[in-house]
Amino acid sequence: MGKLVVFIIIALLALGVVCYLMRLYKKLTVLRQDTEEAFDNIDDLLKQRAGEIPELVSLLETSAGFQSPLFQQLTKQRKRYQTSRKSEDKVRLANQIDQGLQQIFTLSEAYPELKSLYGLVELRKRLMQLEFQIAERCEPFNQSVIRYNAGLRTFPNAILALLLGYRTKSLLTQSKEYRDDTIF
């Protein structure tokens, strides 16, 4: 009878540990799904912004005669963004595209003749509208990433996350400089 009691106690403890681990796993999964859903809400806007890059590059190359390695780099990043499947890769590329657009608009500030290019002014307006929409959705995404990353770093979640191969995610950064109305 004593062995049966010990066996029941060990079985209950094992069941408790398994239930606890399942609860931790569920929590980590919910946090990961929240970040994916938040990214899905912003992904279409990021795709639209990336879709404007060829027109921007074409306008600057043909109308203003600019040639820059930055244009080629931005075009490559756009292509990689459109073919990427992982949200983490897309966030990294979206951040790089944002920096590239900022550099292009900063460069264009130095050339007053660009202010009169109708196509560029219209394109900038479209990009600004997209940027404001992206900024509205960026905050909830970044908050979900912060919660996810915090969930991965707390004990005992950190142990389970390490065993399951969960990695921290990057925040989506948005430059405000090139959205300023004083550029054009």
Gross morphology: rod-shaped
Q: How many whole angstroms does the radius of gyration measure? A: 24 Å
- CATH homologous superfamily identity: LemA-like domain
Quickly count the domains.
1
Q: Please give the share of residues in helix.
A: over 70%
CATH level 3 topology: de novo design (two linked rop proteins)
Distance from N terminus to C terminus (CA atoms, Å) equals 86 Å
**Mind summarizing the main beta sheet?**
none
Q: How many individual helices?
A: 6
Keywords: Membrane, Transmembrane, Transmembrane helix
Pfam families: LemA
GO cellular component, one term: membrane
Protein name: LemA family
Overview of the molecule:
It contains six helices and no strands. With 184 residues, it is mainly alpha-helical. Keywords: Membrane, Transmembrane, Transmembrane helix. It is found in: Membrane. Its main location: membrane. Belongs to the LemA family.
Brief characterization of the structure:
The protein has 184 residues and is mainly α.
List keywords for this structure.
0% strand; 6 helices; 184 residues; mainly alpha; transmembrane; MamQ_LemA; LemA-like_dom_sf; LemA family; de novo design (two linked rop proteins)
SSE order and pairing:
Blueprint: H1 2-51, H2 53-62, H3 69-83, H4 87-109, H5 118-153, H6 157-164
Helix pairs in contact: 1-4, 1-5, 3-4
